[in-house]
Amino acid sequence: MSARFSLLLNAALFQAGWWACVVSAAQQRAVQAALALAGVVAIQILLHAAPLRALWLALACLALGAVIETLLVALHVTAYPHAELVLGLAPAWMAGLWALLSTTLDASLRWLQGRRVLGIALGAGAGALSYAAGARLGALVLPGAHALWVIAAVWGLALPLLFELARWLERARWPR
Questions:
Q1: Which of 25, 38, 104, 120 is deepest in the core (most CB within 10 A)?
Q2: 0.85 exceeded by the pTM?
Q3: Share of the chain above pLDDT 90, in %
């Protein structure tokens, strides 16, 4: 498969996974949202040149996403009206979106690696827009006027951090 087709497929699968997840969550189908994500992430990992490394990156992003999303819930930045929060944890599908994003770091978003200022700007802008779109679709609620500002700050920091994690795994050639 050509490099250009591979990048387009990666971006298209990311978008399809995001929409399937968020629309399912908005329709109170959290299990379907999580399954949609798992399927798309699995396909992306299998298509990756280093599938084991892609799996570890996805798992690391999933764990980081679970922590950050749970903090956003605890700080009343986000709320999930259709989800029953277990022990105050953010819904699995929300953390799963972080794993989905991980599949783009070595592919369709690779051009951002090493461009920290642009990564901060894109993370802040796209992050806030993504949450705003999810809220408009009904998958989550942004309870305060400050919510999008906090989310923009979080994603402005998170996206460059995720690129550093991806680069570290690539440089270390780990796992083999």
A1: 25
A2: yes
A3: 86
